[in-house]
């Protein structure tokens, strides 16, 4: 999931690689915080936007 998002950020959105990595680290942090607060297990379907999955 994160590899696909990184490739999309670099190729389509024309981000620098380091900028994309930091953006994805923030996303991962938000996912982890949400999991801990709600005591849920990880679900890739909830984490990834549908537009990236279709591409």
Give a quick account of the main beta sheet: strands, pairing sense, barrel closure: none
Number of strands: 0
Number of domains: 1
Overall structural class, as computed from helix and strand content, comes to mainly alpha
Which residues sit in consecutive blocks of at least 5 with pLDDT less than 50? Answer: none
Could you explain the architecture of this structure?
This protein has one domain (2-54). The protein is built from four helices and no strands. It has helices spanning 2-11, 17-38, 44-47, 50-54. Helix 1 packs antiparallel against helix 2 (17-38). The longest helix has 22 residues, at 17-38.
Secondary-structure map:
Blueprint: H1 2-11, H2 17-38, H3 44-47, H4 50-54
Give a quick precis of the structure.
The chain is built from four helices and no strands.
């Amino acid at each position: 999931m994160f590899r696909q998002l990184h490739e999309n950020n670099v190729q389509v959105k024309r981000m620098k690689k380091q900028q994309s990595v930091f953006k994805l680290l923030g996303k991962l942090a938000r996912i982890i915080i949400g999991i801990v607060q709600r005591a849920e297990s990880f679900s890739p379907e909830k984490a990834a936007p549908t537009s990236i999955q279709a591409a």
